Amino acid sequence: ALALALRAPLLLQLATRAGRVVGQLNARQTSAMNVANAIAAETLRESRAVAALGARQQVVAEYRAAVGTYTDVVAQTLLAETVLRFTSLLIKSVSEWVLLVWGLASVRAGRISIGLLMAFYAYERKFSQGTVVLQNMALELQSMRPTCARYFELLDREPRMSYNGTVPRTFHGEIELRNVSFDFAQHGLASDAAKRDRRHERADEDAGTLQGVNLKIRPGEVVAIAGPSGGGKSTLLLLLLRLYDPNGGQVLLDGADLRSLDVAWFRSHFGYVPQEPALLDRSVADNVAFGMPSPPPPSALSHVLQLAGADAFVDALSSGIDSRVGEGGRSLSGGQRQRLALARALARRPRVLLLDEATSALDAEGERHVLAALRTLNATTTVMVAHRLSAVLSADRVVVVVGGKVVESGTPAELSTAGGWFQRNFFPPIDPER
């Protein structure tokens, strides 16, 4: 009886300790699986680049290594569970044999009857089944602890920003940045998402950093943001969209701090075209209407496609505006994807239009068409990150950002003779000896 009484807590303690080990192994197993899946997804997404660069063997080796790590952890997990179950079975079998030997000896000595022994043995079998159930429950609970801890950590996490705020009655599109500073590292953004947002900046630690930026943009003004890569140009657009909050200073819309405004409200007045448009595996019409409360009427859809210079290639598609564009718009060229993204932004009839090198994949004729169309949006405040001279010259004003600071601001004509970064890079002196 004493051996049976000690067996239950011993088995539960064993299951608890083994469960912790299995839980840690399960966490490692999930991490290893995520690494392997990420390699596979990235390779499929960039399959053309992998083939063109002859990197097939490299990515296959990386994937095999990741899968190997995963299978090793799975093997360790199975080994730990097997050892636990074998040890539990051994303890259970030994205790039953001890009970049987002790019982038979007691029957022979006349201390108990054979009926009492059989009854006690039957009760022991029932008790043993309950112990096994408790042991399995303890093992499952301990195994799930890391996953549950991560789940509740995410549930308890407080949002970095509040999405609720005031909704002004009118919005004219005036933008102002007052002494704005921002740094991805100080903002605690070492995540993959933050790294993707820095993809157009330099690869060093200072990429995307802003330092004391002061800038005011009038309603309806077209402003080009120029400067070297990594200066923080794209970061400015992310702050205007309030995808991130600045570490210091204020971003103002019509004089109101962006943090005090309702996020859904002001974003509904923004149009944003990144350099790498995000298109879905849906029809052209669905991609243009994506994010809008209701799809635009056919006449409005046709109009924005014309403004973006996308009407010709859309009409040439097999099903026109009902043609699916493939995942990420893979069935379209880079220029076609940019035109479609621009049409989507224009369909929102934005008060503020943000363009992050939105014409970089267009040919000269296509760019001229788009820039001319943008000039017709008189009531729209336009901020465009640009590296091409043609795009810069189409702006009312050029702001040069170098090292996270505004170093020049003026009309293209003024800056072309100012002797600064703009003149050196867009209007370099001609060497007469060449």
Automatic annotation (TrEMBL):
Its main location: membrane. InterPro entries: AAA+_ATPase, ABC1_TM_dom, ABC1_TM_sf, ABC_transporter-like_ATP-bd, ABC_transporter-like_CS, P-loop_NTPase, Type_1_exporter. The keyword Membrane applies. It comes from the Eukaryota. Keywords: ATP-binding, Cell membrane, Membrane, Nucleotide-binding, Signal, Transmembrane, Transmembrane helix, Transport. GO terms for molecular function: ABC-type oligopeptide transporter activity; ATP binding; ATP hydrolysis activity. This is ABC transporter domain-containing protein. It comes from Chrysotila carterae.
